[in-house]
Amino acid sequence: EKSALSIIDYSLAYKTANGLIPALQNIDLTIPKGKTVGLVGESGSGKSSMAWSIMRYLPSNAVETGGAIRLAGEELLDYTPYQMMDIRGRRMSMVFQDPSTSLNPTIKLGEQIAEVLMRHRGLTKAQAWAEAEAALGRTGITRPKEMLQRFPHEASGGEKQRVVIATAFACEPELIIFDEPTTALDILTARQILDLFNQLREETNVSALYISHDLGLVSRVVDRVSVIHKGIIVESGSVQEVFRRPKADYTRQLIGAVPDPDRWVGVDAPGEPKTLLRIDKVGVRYGAPTKLQAMFWPTDAETVGFWGAKDISIDVRKGELLGVVGESGSGK
Ligand code: ATP
Ligand code: MG
């Protein structure tokens, strides 16, 4: 069978003041059609570099020192930047850690999805807006029509990531790369995003590379996983093999490094600190335009009347570190 993506003996280095620093060394990685492969490793191990190499979106000081990257058998390293512009978005797309970086802050969410659909699927404006609404609806957003009228800063992190994922899937790409898509989100929202991804990939049969440092999350979505350490893949196999019977010492370390949440709770505050800041029954209501909005953007009538936060009373006491905990969109 043909694979969706095959990376063969691929190496990459960065030119720096200290000379060429290798970032990826002799990488072999295959994503079979319709499967999701995980790429797991600590910060700085080269995961994002791998993603950028596949997308052909490398910084100018990157030097490719050998190998092949093939999308459905086609050698991407031979394509010009101009040819790649047509392939990105249409045949492969990418979802980043921080959804804000994928979105233009000055353009309504609906317009941003519609633009991609018009460009890559040749839809008319009306068709693209209808399709954008349907795509958002499939991601579980409750009022997709209203969400389309919002600007990125009017949506929570989880909502923005749903918009980005909806856009990524809307062009029915062969390959999607997820680079730590839930790292900026709380654990409940992260799970919802993972469930959404699982649902969408069943519906579409997309092939995916799922990058993360979080082994627990990865094991919920991938079929196979590769462990990367200092630019070298130290181990590859099924989730069962790699997580239950790790062969490489480094994999064992990585599994051992998952923090135990029980150790984080139950911090005792000594003494009787005094109140430093008191918030007494404060609410924030969206709809009345903020000064910034009033200056630059007309406020949409449909967004009037949402409570961002309501009846909030909090005492912050001297010398105390107060935690505010809640899922994405809860109003923190
Ligand atoms: P994280 O989990 O923190 O996102 P990562 O695994 O994605 O880390 P990369 O961003 O791929 O890691 O970086 C791999 C190595 O390459 C790091 O040592 C980094 O400092 C280096 N690097 C990345 N981009 C450049 C660049 N443009 N120039 C020089 N070095 C770079
Ligand atoms: Mg990264």
UniProtKB/TrEMBL annotation:
Location relative to the cell: Cell inner membrane
Membrane topology: Peripheral membrane protein
Main subcellular location of this protein, as a coarse class: membrane
Transmembrane segments: none
Keywords: ATP-binding, Nucleotide-binding, Transport
MF terms (GO), sorted A to Z: ATP binding
Domain ABC transporter: 5-255
Protein family per UniProt: Belongs to the ABC transporter superfamily.
Protein name, per record: Peptide/nickel transport system ATP-binding protein
Origin species: Pseudorhizobium tarimense
Full-protein positions shown: 16 to 347 of 558
